[in-house]
């Protein structure tokens, strides 16, 4: 439903289709207060990272047709979500979710997860690109040193058209990919999940605030229905072994890195509010007032909504649809700010061109 690069589209459809409950409440052990606090705090921190940095990079991606900064970071151009896309997305996500549920009921879970693992291993190129951007200065210094050395053969290899930084990062991300394929370790899972979420927030651009409200409103209903109305969401989330959720063990203090009782947060609960928060940052920039009022208010609202989700989940010991709490917070706080500042009309009438988005 979303017009975006193919691997990212599949990843986001999967995340929206099965990762929208905030944490896995059906565990077989009693977590210590310290372990619980560490797990929930870590999930909150990991969720904020791709939203904050993805929103900042989305501004750079939207400033010109060249989008040089965006290409250096991800190799892809930003894609714009229209109101039609936003309206269709919950329907497509529901079909994807129910299709996965049927697959797990009809076929062997082991073989399905093996195919999914291989598929996500291919998507490690996203992680490679992110590492390329992060390591760019250091790798360039290494390249400069080696190409100016007396090793003529090695210097010639480095002068080929491919990027040395991409090659080095490909090796690093391949190590993570093999680690994930062989061990399914939660740290490798989170590295992939953070990479996908960061790319999603950066590259998926809502064309205006109204479209954002349509998307969040539709997924609000979708999330509530599939979590509270059926067991489909929880069943798929427990069965789905792919990096479409962030996890953190509640028994880390007892078992170390071999811990196995996880709290979880779906990538859909990061990316969907994240692209709306990124939109509000671009709106702040378009106002040319040298303030980030709407961005910070929505960012604080996201923290409030996620903390509320965790609190209610922990209190009632039941998986929660995070968008039930995130959507009213992320939409309501900025609209309230706009009402106080008298900018509601300007917020909802702002065009994609006014937000600095070039298609």
TrEMBL record:
Keywords: Endoplasmic reticulum, Hydrolase, Membrane, Transmembrane, Transmembrane helix. Its main location: endoplasmic reticulum. It is found in: Endoplasmic reticulum membrane; Membrane. The chain crosses the membrane at residues 37-56, 110-131, 188-206, 213-237, 257-281, 293-316, 322-340. One of its GO terms (molecular function) is aspartic endopeptidase activity, intramembrane cleaving. GO terms for cellular component: cytoplasmic side of endoplasmic reticulum membrane; lumenal side of endoplasmic reticulum membrane. Pfam families: Peptidase_A22B. This is Histocompatibility (minor) 13. It comes from Neogobius melanostomus.
